[in-house]
Amino acid sequence: MCHVIVTCRSMLWTLLSIVVAFAELIAFMSADWLIGKAKPSGSEDGDNRTGASQEPYHPTLGIYWRCTRIPHMQFSRRDTLCGPYAENFSEIASGFWQATAIFLAMGIMILCTVAFVSVFTMCVQSIMKKSIFNVCGLLQGIAGLFLILGLILYPAGWGCQKATNYCGNYASAYKLGDCSLGWAFYTAIGGTVLTFICAVFSAQAEIATSSDKVQEEIEEGKNLICLL
């Protein structure tokens, strides 16, 4: 018989697992990893005869995505265009960024799987006599290691041609040059830290759902058990 068990700690672990997975996925797909040096709005075509604003802007560059400003030919206005600069994996700007993409993708796939499974832990607490919380916690720890590897390798690619176009000739491995780090990089770091917190907290979720109070509720014949 399926017993729906909801505790404060298990729900918190489930919510954190979902948040971490989405945060890492959004960061990975974002172009805001590097914020390039300021460029004047008219630098693309050198034409400001229509009086278009010359306020500088900062192009951004991600692992495989970029955002820049382009002119609209009819009105000579500027707008931001975002899209992948690499049409396939081999066109990613650096071998280090290719490795980063692989490690981050593997970590995110694991996190998304755990996030999906965590929703069902209210009803299923064990698989093959093993706690589903402990299994998911182990997977989150492995995902965290993949994420760390990806984040360590990412700065090694700052010396590639694509990065120097955005950050200037002084950019090199682990040196930003004229660039600054965007919110996506910090989000990926924060998500990695939370991943390990989730891995540790999964043990607390397992303890909460197998406590004596839960067992007493089961023995009383209750199918829906909700404990704070």
UniProtKB/TrEMBL annotation:
Species for this entry: Pardalotus punctatus (spotted pardalote)
Protein family (similarity comment): Belongs to the LHFP family.
Membrane topology: Multi-pass membrane protein
GO biological process, one term: single fertilization
Gene this chain is encoded by: Lhfpl2
Source taxonomy: Eukaryota, Metazoa, Chordata, Craniata, Vertebrata
Keywords, sorted A to Z: Fertilization, Membrane, Transmembrane, Transmembrane helix
Subcellular localization(s) per the UniProt record: Membrane
Database matches in Pfam families: L_HMGIC_fpl
Segments passing through the bilayer: 12-35, 96-120, 132-154, 183-203
Name assigned to this protein: LHPL2 protein
Keyword Transmembrane: yes
GO cellular component annotations of the record: membrane
Principal place of residence: membrane
UniProt KW Transit peptide keyword: no
